[in-house]
Amino acid sequence: MSQVNKSIQEKTEQLTKLVEWFDSDDFSIEEALDKYKIAEKLANEIESDLLLLKNEIQIIKKNFDSEK
Q1: What is the DSSP string of 8-60?
Q2: Is residue 55 exposed (0-12), middle (13-18) or buried (19+ Cβ within 10 Å)?
Q3: What DSSP state is assigned to residue 66?
Q4: Residues 10, 45 contacting (CB under 8 angstroms)
Q5: Per-residue model confidence (pLDDT) at position 65
Q6: Predicted TM-score (pTM) of this structure
Q7: 5: Cβ contacts below 8 Å, ≥ 6 apart
Q8: Per-domain boundaries in the chain
Q9: Residue 68's pLDDT band (boundaries 50, 70, 90)?
Q10: pLDDT by residue (tens digit) across 13-57?
Q11: pLDDT of residue 5
């Protein structure tokens, strides 16, 4: 599970850098579409990873509750 967390953190950092690029002086309209597509893909991957973690947590919680 820590491997997934690291992956989420890395993706979030990369997404943050992409978002910052849109507000930077380096912004160019020619690159914007490509950067937007990358950012959108990262956001979708992060959402998917978080959903997976949520499901794992619910399974662990269910198992823990049944052991009581």
Answers
A1: HHHHHHHHHHHHHHHTSTT--HHHHHHHHHHHHHHHHHHHHHHHHHHHHHHHH
A2: exposed
A3: H
A4: no
A5: 86
A6: 0.77
A7: 53
A8: 2-67
A9: low
A10: 999 999 999 999 999 999 999 999 999 999 999 999 999 999 999
A11: 64
| Structure confidence by residue, pLDDT tens digits, 56-65 | 999 999 988 8
**Which amino acid, one-letter code, is at 16?**
T
CB count in 10 Å sphere of residue 1: 10
| Burial class (CB within 10 angstroms; exposed 0-12, middle 13-18, buried 19+) of 49 | middle
Cα-based distances in Å from 5 to 20, 25, 52, 58: 22, 32, 11, 16
CB 15 within 8 A of CB 46: yes
